[in-house]
Amino acid sequence: MRFQPTDWLLLSPELFLTAAGLLLLSIAVFVSKAKEELLGFLSVIFLGITAALLAFVATSTARAAGPILGGMFVVDNFALFFKFLVLLSLVLTVLASVRFVGAAPYPGGEYYALLLFAGVGMFFMVSGSNLVSIYVALELMALSSYVLAGYFKGEISRPKRR
Question: Is residue 19 pLDDT above 90, yes or no?
Answer without folding.
Answer: yes
